[in-house]
Description:
Largest sheet of chain A: 6 strands, mixed
Shape of chain B: elongated
Largest sheet of chain B: 3 strands, antiparallel
Structural class of chain B: mainly alpha
Number of helices of chain A: 8
Order of helices and strands of chain B: HEHHEHHEHHEEHHHHHHHHHHHHHHH
Number of strands of chain B: 5
Strand content of chain B: under 5%
Radius of gyration of chain A: 24 Å
Bound molecules: adenosine-5'-triphosphate, magnesium ion
Low-confidence stretches of chain A: none
Helix content of chain B: 55-70%
Helix content of chain A: 10-25%
Strand order of the largest sheet of chain A: 6-7-8-3-9-10
CATH topology of the largest domain in chain B: MetI-like fold
Distance between the termini of chain B: 20 Å
Strand content of chain A: 25-35%
Oligomer: heterodimer
Distance between the termini of chain A: 36 Å
Number of domains of chain B: 2
Order of helices and strands of chain A: EEEHEEEHHHEHEHEEHHEEEEEEEEEE
Mean pLDDT of chain B: 81
Number of helices of chain B: 22
Low-confidence stretches of chain B: none
Structural class of chain A: alpha+beta
Amino acid sequence: MQISINNFTKTFDGTPVIDDMNLTIRDGEMLALLGPSGCGKSTTLFTISGIHRMDKGQLMFGDRDVSGLPSQKRNVGVVFQNYALYPHMNVFENIAFPLTVRKDNKADIDREVRAIAALTHISELLERRPGQLSGGQQQRVALARALVRKPDVLLLDEPLANLDAKLRLEMRSEIRRIQLETGITAVLVTHDQVEAMSMCDRIAIMKKGEIVQIDTPADMYSNPRTSFVAGFLGNPPISFLSGIAMENSFSVAPIKLRVPLGAHEGIADGTQLKLGVRPEHFGPEGDIAVEGKIAFAETQGRENLYDVALADGSVLRSIQPAGRNWALGDTVRWFIDSKSAFVFSDDGRRL
Amino acid sequence: MRTSSPHRANLLGLAFMTPAMVLLLGFFFLPVVLTSVFAFTNMSTATGISGGSYIVTGNLLRSLTDEGLDAKTIEALGQSSYVIDQAGLEKARAAGVDAKFITEIGERLKDRSFTSASAFERELKTLPSRPTRVRDLKIAAGAFEQSVLNVRYASRGEMEAALLHMLENPPQGAIERIATASYTGWTWTTENFKNLLVAPDTWRIVGNTVFYVVLTLAFNVLVGLFLAITTFYLPSAGSSFFSVLWLLPRITPVVLYAVMWKWFTWEDGFVFNIAQDLGLPAFNYMKGSVASAWTVVILVNGFVGASFGMILFSGALKAIPVQQLWASDVDGASRWQQIRYIILPHMRWPILFVTSYQTLSLLSSYEQIWLTTNGGPGSTTTVWALEAFKTALNNYTGNLQYGLGAAMALILVAVGLVLSIVYLRLFRFDEMMSKPKIEF
Ligand SMILES: Nc1ncnc2c1ncn2[C@@H]1O[C@H](COP(=O)(O)OP(=O)(O)OP(=O)(O)O)[C@@H](O)[C@H]1O
Ligand SMILES: [Mg+2]
């Protein structure tokens, strides 16, 4: 089911948190809401679920306006950040709860719960209390409870935040598998860009209550609309150089760096600009030479990370395959791949 | 270093426990022990709490008659006799009777006895040295009078000797029985319990107490829960106002609170006037009828307990993670289902705590009843604790029966202990207590 949020505004105690947001989530897609802490991701999610009400705006499930409906009547499944399992009920009762309050008959409840438990691989835990489960198991119980009554929408609020790295990887694919299997429309709130990119069809990046860009992970990465988006996606992150426009080039005078602006001709000389260079676009190969000192080196096994400090103090990050290793303090003359660099105006707009 | 540490930990634990133990001993065990001691005595205002003496009074004779002592013995006890013996002669001398006359009495009447004053006096008048004045004759006769009636003996032995002297061949055991009955101090006895068991009032009061505790408890818990939950769902501005309002019964001084109820329910009080305006029967609702008296008693205590319950329940409600309430909302639970499935299970411990705590405090509470209906009309709203209080410490006749009151209090303590154990087992407080959530 398609969800559209139109002109959504939310204020907490006079402080605007979401201002005039528009967002459409396509039927059957999994959308990531990605953004820094406090940008309003949970608020948006809770508004879709009905826990928070809109101050202004409209929420459509398909072509049904649900803005005024209480959460009981919206048929959404929510996985809360801390799972919010009911501690006094066992796993079976937790999962069965949405069906119990709907007064389904016992046999149906039993069948549905066992089916969803099998799907989430917790069939052998049904008798346990939440307190007797590991974080990952609790997470799957929460997922099962959210899914058991076949909601129209699945909302996940940082469901993997509490898990260890390995479990997180497992659960990522698990959730994605279940979402694809059930074909449910899902929203995943996260501040982990890897999670967003690996699990979701599209990513909406939020900043201070606004959606800055919404795109597929690949497009978002290769074509960021602002320096904020470029900086948010990618690990290790992109690095920025500050400079000015000079004769159709990006120029940093103190280090005599000139990067041709190519397509962005006609920028007035002297305009403040920022150049974004991803770590994979700076290294021993490329077209624009830069000289600097290795200020930081870290090996990650398959790859090595380097920070190269330039003469004016700015830093460019690089990621290189292991094998040819540079040491801290080495002077290197590396190259920027100018065609892959992003040019941003001083206020962060991509040019 | 390592081997000594458990030992030191034990000592440290003991040191930490000491103040608690001292307080427990001083404020709990000691009163209970004293109550138990008093409960097995017949102490009262009449006996005093120190020792007593032995005295046969008219009252005692009457009660002995009631208890079936034979009439002959009773009569003998009530009579005086005149025996001419050495002690009598000494006494006469001390009373200043003429020495010659005394000698004559000694010589002529030695070892004779007379059962009445007139017979003895007639005999005395025959003696040559008899005094001329009747008054002197009576003084001389009085010296030989022997009676146990209204004579105070310091010890049991003296009393028994006197009795033996008075009674010719008394029935088996009569001497001991009379001596025991004549003791004016307190004695050890189990009579208190036996009397309580057979007194018809006892069971009425037990019934009253059960009725009072059960209904007030139900009011405490249900109204407390209701208030806590409704204020929980109310917007915060309104809820804090109502919280304070409902706290008033708890924070108002007991006496003031009782006085307010009196204004509320007495003649010309609030309810009275409203009832009158509505054409309903208007009377003193606090004491005018059994039903209204009970209603007042239960409400007076009910509201105090309800505000106590509300404080506790409100705290517990605030401790429920809000995400669980959100989760149950999106899971489709109605308000009522949310209360039933999420909130009440979370309230299990506070509810059990309030129930058991209130049962025990209601069992032993009498202040509010004392200050309002004072157990009336008649003794229809008299509960065990009030009766014990009145028996031991506060009644109109002025004879405070400490022993009986203590026995009643002791029964209350026993019931309280039994109930605590029942609650502990029933509600598995041990589960809550003994399994620490935090491991060390
Ligand atoms: N109930 C509330 N009352 C007042 N302010 C609130 C409330 N809930 C959220 N806010 C504020 O709204 C803003 C957005 O909060 P929100 O929880 O949506 O952030 P978030 O993007 O989910 O952050 P995080 O990643 O840390 O969870 C924050 O500044 C927060 O302080
Ligand atoms: Mg959040």
